[in-house]
Amino acid sequence: MSGLKKQMWLGLMGKLKKSMDKKLRSRPQMEKRLVITAKLSKIYPKDMEAPAGGVDDMTKLSYLHEPGVLQNLKIRYELNEIYTYTGNILIAINPFQRLPHIYDAHMMQQYKGAPFGELSPHVFAVADVAYRAMINEGKSNSILVSGESGAGKTETTKMLMRYLAYLGGRAVTEGRTVEQQVLESNPVLEAFGNAKTVRNNNSR
Ligand SMILES: Nc1ncnc2c1ncn2[C@@H]1O[C@H](COP(=O)(O)OP(=O)(O)OP(=O)(O)O)[C@@H](O)[C@H]1O
User: Fold this and answer.
1) Hey, whose CA ends up nearest to atom 16 of ligand 1?
2) Residue with the nearest Cα to atom 26 of ligand 1?
3) I need a surface site. Which of 31, 48, 178, 181 has the fewest CB within 10 A?
4) β-strand pairing of 23-28 with 36-39
5) Which domains does the chain have, with CATH numbers?
6) Ligand 1: distance of its center to the CA of 155 in Å?
7) Which sign, positive or negative, has the C-alpha torsion 118, 119, 120, 126?
């Protein structure tokens, strides 16, 4: 078991058996015969009030520690909930499979103008709030998309661009909508701006 997994196991799954000096003994609920001993400093409290399906905003967790955050993201990911907020930051987990229902026209319509945090965490909600701030304040705005290679930055950016193009209207020039034209520019930008990496072959 890796160090981090062990921490999560102990902190979130185990039932405390006995305290010995600076070490604790834990009996994980799912493995009756297994008793794990770990240093006190490696044990984290479990949020007993968190719902079984996890929380949609990590600030709702009673204890904000790494194993708790990872456990919450894992629970949501297993339910195909790839987006989770931490305040006004959106965390996206790469689903490595197409989830068309979460990006269709109906979803875009739902997020249009909806107050941030009212609907489930989504990349459209971030785009919507950025767009509205730009309009209301009359100033340019930026959305930072960050992550390691293959994390899903390009896909996320495409969804952001799709949503912004959708908000910007559907004017047609040369037989194609603004949305189509914006998205068609992406492969060209990627081809010149990206290198193929061991984790991602999206540019050659
Ligand atoms: N939201 C998503 N839905 C479905 N598949 C996704 C999603 N995000 C990422 N993927 C899958 O993961 C692959 C890698 O994602 P992407 O190219 O966006 O990563 P990246 O962070 O831009 O990587 P790099 O930094 O190497 O360019 C995509 O080709 C796609 O197959």
Assistant:
1) 152
2) 149
3) 48
4) antiparallel
5) 3-42 (no CATH), 92-193 (3.40.850.10)
6) 5
7) negative
Per-residue buried b or exposed e for 52-75, using 16+ beta carbons within 10 Å of the residue's own CB: eebbbebebbeeeeebbbebbbeb
Residue 125, Cβ density class (10 Å: 0-12 exposed, 13-18 middle, ≥19 buried): buried
Give the start-end residues of each E strand in 87-135. 89-92
Ligand 1 centroid from CA 66, angstroms: 24
Q: Ligand 1: distance of its center to the CA of 137 in Å?
A: 32
pTM of structure: 0.79
- Measured between alpha carbons, how far is 107 from 121 in angstroms, rounded to an integer? 12
pLDDT tens track for 103-126: 999 999 999 999 999 999 999 999
Question: For residue range 41-87, what is the model confidence (pLDDT) as tens digits?
Answer: 878 888 888 899 999 999 999 988 999 999 999 999 999 999 999 99
Among protein residues, the one whose CA lies closest to atom 23 of ligand 1: 150
Half-sphere exposure of 58 (CA within 13 A, CB side): 23
In the block, which residue shows the tokens 């969804």? 159
